Amino acid sequence: xxxTMCVPTALAPVLFGVPATGIxxxxxxxxxxxxxxFATQGFSQRKxxxxxxxxxxxxxxxxxxxxxxxxxxxxxxxxxxxxxVLRDLAAGPWPVVYSWQSESLLLRAxxxxxxxxxxxxxxxxxxxxxxxxxxQNIIIFTLIFYFVAGNILGVRNMFVVVLVFCLFSxxxxxxxxxxxxARDTTIPEDHIEAWARYFQYxxxxxxxxxxxxxxxxxxxxxxxxxxxCRSEVRIGLLLALVPLFAFWSPLSAIxxxxxxxxxxxxxxxxxxxxxxxxxxxxxxxxISLPALYYQQLGATQIDHGFTxxxxxxxxxxxVFLILELLPLLVLIAYLDRRAANDPTLMIAIFILVLIPLxxxxxxxxxxxxxxxxxxxxxxxxxGSASVRFCEQGVFRVRMxxxxxxxxxxxxxxxxEIRRSLVREPVAEAKCNLIQVWQMERPKGSIADYAxxxxxxxxxxxxxxxxxxxxxxxSSCGRHQGNGSxxx
Length: 487
Prior knowledge:
single chain, disordered C terminus
């Protein structure tokens, strides 16, 4: 799991299309292999429990397919953008450059999820790119779910932990019923998490349905962090994942920083931070530099700023924390009072209270994505606490509160699942990224996905630079079947 998710970062220089950077990518991938091989000693020697692996595969396959990956079922609007990025990487030359009006735009986005399927599609054909992406993600989420319940004995108990993890969510349905509106528009009945207007904390189902590229690195980090808490992995591996995962999602990586900082300080305090850990972290950072440099190109053009001066902010903020955070804290404290005093939970609370004060991106992706690591860690804690609570043989009446909290929160994910089952699959739209932008957000900014070639250093680009046409063809369009998406 870890190597599969980290190797795209090492291969990032290939995106530049310059032979010298390709050689650098090869050396980076080889260095990454030896670094992770050394860092995961002991971790990789864990005995595989095939019953737990089967459960993890069931959840991963079910959720990935229900989320529209592979095109078998309905896919939400975000997949029009993701499939366009994947298609551009799979079908065209690298770097991906678009000719738009009198300007050339370089594809600049977190591409960790796409690199391996796109490279494979260059071999077998671009038509198989979606299948390759779905296969990769099913494998990754299978291993993530397996390690979500990594310290739990018994197949039934592992099932409970993964189920609680997947159902984990705030009370979005209550917020929607209170009558709040999302940016002065009606909230879609089949996607209710935008009720708080300025920010949202996505349910676990929503994350894997809408943004697996953000969820996968955050969930994987959460698993490794919990293993570090149990002294099952070395601190060097945990710290190395922060820059290596940033190519998947820089916003999720930002959400991991407080946990990594705490883990590093504690390891230093108890003298568990060795010279080898420092070397692992340093090499991982060096390998990640090209990918990090690529992602910061033109980043200042992305809409950003503080949110506390927005209209009715403090009202939304208070209600948001009461409905999104308080039920989850009550659940964890009720299931395991010791967990309520855990520094890890305190860090998660601190992060989730502060995140709404800042925004980044037109839809405030900062709140939605940088919150994922904290939410994932809380979900793992809640799942493990649920098993221990049940093993105590408590009276059935004491199960009412946790069941009510989980049931109300789970409505968010169940609504997402229902939408996938009742809507017709979306026919593949053969659009490139700029064409999607013209269709979906003609008045919005493309800065989240592309940057002017004028700000890109010439040494990063081949000569000449091949560009993709942005003329819209008849095969480019979103065909919905019955009922179009209201977003």
